[in-house]
UniProtKB/TrEMBL annotation:
It comes from the Eukaryota. PROSITE patterns: TUDOR. SUPFAM superfamilies: Tudor/PWWP/MBT. Residues 72-132 form the Tudor domain. This is Tudor domain-containing protein.
Length: 294
């Protein structure tokens, strides 16, 4: 946007210079002189307008970009980096920080593209203040995308399980962000549905409040039931995998119809004790009936 405004200003200045040169000519009619003077005033207004627009854009750009300065301790962290090609922000990994010229070398996640950007084009990801097991969050993976996940373990790092595929990942804290479901209490770990006090129907509740609580309670039970079914399905799959690995351990993968390797199981092989099977003579059906007719 700023580049386009600068181009417009340069274009108008070039036109203004040509108009001023034309006005200084001797052989101009009054009508032509009036027309050029009007064009000169319009060009002055256009230049002033785009200069004001450029000032506003620069102020908005300064507030849009970060004024935070990176340090050597930020190397290895995740950040949002600004791509000048399409004017968008993308998750990236900070490789090196150069404090002398205020630049950082980053690699965009999912694209494996490395760029050297000024500090203002980087925004370090801030980890959540508090995380607990069972919390719903978004996890940043190497593909550069945020995936809905559930926190399973919080220690020096965070272990999450993806909601869609069920894969488990151990990530640093800055690869975790809260989402709209982060404040919801997890229902997967409970075998008994706990109804919040705010959803319990009281005797003195009006009819509209009763209906509202009933709708919320119905949605809560439906969500809990679906999560219980998902939990049972995952347990069934894990039990089956454990049973399969336990019972197939040490067994050879071979057909049950395979002939034995002893001499009795070999046919048509040298020193097997048996000769090859005799070929069956093929006759036409007419010859077969003729032998009975004779």
């Amino acid at each position: 946007e700023i580049l386009n405004i600068n181009q417009k200003i340069e274009e108008y200045k070039n036109k203004l210079q040509k108009v001023e040169t034309a006005i200084q000519g001797d052989s101009l009619s009054p009508e032509r002189l009036k027309e050029l003077s009007q064009l000169k005033d319009d060009l002055h207004k256009a230049i002033q307008y785009h200069q004001d627009l450029l000032k506003v854009s620069n102020e908005r750009l300064q507030s849009y970009f970060s004024s935070f300065k990176l340090t050597k301790s930020d190397e290895g962290r995740k950040c949002n980096a600004y791509a000048q090609e399409d004017k968008n922000w993308y998750p990236a990994h900070i490789n090196r920080v150069n404090s002398e010229n205020n630049t950082a070398e980053v690699t965009f996640l999912g694209y494996k593209t490395t760029r050297v950007l000024p500090f203002s084009y980087t925004q370090v990801l801030v980890p959540p203040e508090e995380l607990y097991e069972g919390q719903y969050v978004d996890a940043l993976l190497e593909d550069g995308k945020w995936h809905p996940s559930t926190v399973e373990l919080v220690k020096d790092s965070v272990t999450v399980r993806l909601s869609r595929w069920g894969h488990q990942h151990t990530l640093p804290f800055d690869c975790i962000r809260l989402n709209s479901d982060s404040k919801k209490r997890p229902l997967v770990e409970r075998d008994v549905l706990e109804i919040p006090e705010s959803m319990k129907i009281l005797p003195n509740d009006p009819e509209n409040v009763r209906n509202k609580k009933k709708r919320k309670l119905k949605a809560l039970k439906k969500d809990w039931k679906q999560r219980q079914m998902q939990k049972e399905s995952q347990e069934y799959v894990s039990h089956w995998k454990a049973f399969k690995q336990k019972n197939l351990k040490g067994l050879k993968k071979q057909s049950q119809f395979k002939s034995p390797e002893t001499i009795e199981g070999k046919i048509g092989v040298s020193n097997s004790g048996k000769g090859p099977s005799a070929p069956v003579k093929r006759v036409k059906y007419t010859d077969y009936f003729n032998q009975f007719a004779q």
